[in-house]
Amino acid sequence: MKKIEHIGIAVKDLEASNALYEKLLGVAPYKEEEVVSEGVKTSFFKSGPNKIELLESTGTDGPIAKFLEKKGEGVHHIAFEVDDIVAEITRLKKEGFVVLNETPKRGADNKLVAFVHPKGTHGVLVELCQEIAEEV
Ligand SMILES: CC[C@@H](C(=O)O)C(=O)SCCNC(=O)CCNC(=O)[C@H](O)C(C)(C)COP(=O)(O)OP(=O)(O)OC[C@H]1O[C@@H](n2cnc3c(N)ncnc32)[C@H](O)[C@@H]1OP(=O)(O)O
Ligand SMILES: [Co+2]
């Protein structure tokens, strides 16, 4: 794993949270994107070299909706950048981690993503992210 790609924060109201994080970080979100497959609306902020992803649920039974119900707003996951997500999934499975996606799926901000279950990582949901190469 190369570096932390982003930190995901579950919020109840994306618009209000955008205003709050804009005040906190002193920059506006550089992107807003809905990811239908995950049932979320997201926004992304840059803080120096780091990225914060805010996530609001678009439904009542997706992962963010369930998280908000059980734990309330707060840090939902840590995402790590990888060069080869398929190889990383294979490596982590061999190491005994519970990888939630056999095959990577399309995430936000032009990434392929896969998740590692928080029960095997001291209660922290881990996301793997690989940049999708631009087509030439
Ligand atoms: C926008 C796309 C992408 C990106 O490009 O960046 C994203 O970030 S998408 C983010 C949203 N998507 C996901 O989170 C997908 C992966 N998550 C899952 O598959 C599920 O949420 C889960 C982790 C398998 C849990 O699902 P489930 O078992 O159905 O939920 P429960 O509510 O019953 O929780 C069971 C258990 O796990 C604890 N939990 C759940 N989520 C988290 C979390 N994010 N961090 C830490 N712990 C978590 C939950 O509290 C329950 O614990 P117990 O009550 O102690 O059993
Ligand atoms: Co994420």
TrEMBL record:
Spans through the membrane: none
Keywords attached to this entry: Isomerase, Metal-binding
Listed EC numbers: 5.1.99.1
Key word Transmembrane present: no
Stretches assigned to the VOC domain: 3-131
Keyword Acetylation: no
Gene3D superfamilies on file: 2,3-Dihydroxybiphenyl 1,2-Dioxygenase, domain 1
Positions in coiled-coil regions: none
Broad enzyme group: isomerase
PROSITE patterns tied to this protein: VOC (PS51819)
Molecular function via GO: methylmalonyl-CoA epimerase activity
Pfam families on file: Glyoxalase_4
InterPro entries linked to this entry: Glyas_Bleomycin-R_OHBP_Dase (IPR029068), MeMalonyl-CoA_epimerase (IPR017515), MMCE/EMCE_epimerase (IPR051785), VOC_core (IPR037523)
Family from the record: Belongs to the methylmalonyl-CoA epimerase family.
Protein name in the entry: Methylmalonyl-CoA epimerase
Organism: Maribacter chungangensis
GN (gene name): mce
